[in-house]
Design goal:
The chain has 151 residues and is α+β, with helices and mostly antiparallel strands. It has 4 helices and 5 strands; from the N terminus they run H-H-E-H-E-E-H-E-E. The relative contact order is 0.17.
Amino acid sequence: MRTATTTRERTPTRGGRKGGGRTATPRNAYQRIVATSKLPQLPGDTYRIIVRPRDGLNVTKVSQIRFEQALAMAAALAPAEMEEDIICPNRTQNSYVVCTPHEKNACAYGKAQEVRLGNCTYRVSVYLAPPDNMCECVIRGVDVDISEAQL
């Protein structure tokens, strides 16, 4: 009969990995969350609007068609004006991504403050997502006399 001589042999690790490290399960779970929270692949030459429901509205429990109709009413857009628009739910972040090639529609969506689903009215937070080719940075120490065009 063989007896354990080292701590590693006596105490198995949680994940059963050699060397005492953890298994990759937590990292894979994290990577899945990061991947699902990113914006879906949408056409690059369009406006992307993020719509975040408030007041307890759960994206997973609302029909996408009903939400599209409610958002169209809130934005005062006719169904014919929305034919080229794409609305994708992001269940991980409890939000919707609206993709439209028309600036008029993007402005209309941006002005929406609440949607009405059935007898309930829910507030929404709406903002325009930055384009893919935009660089995100902070410029410090800029003179107040310099205009945005000069920057």
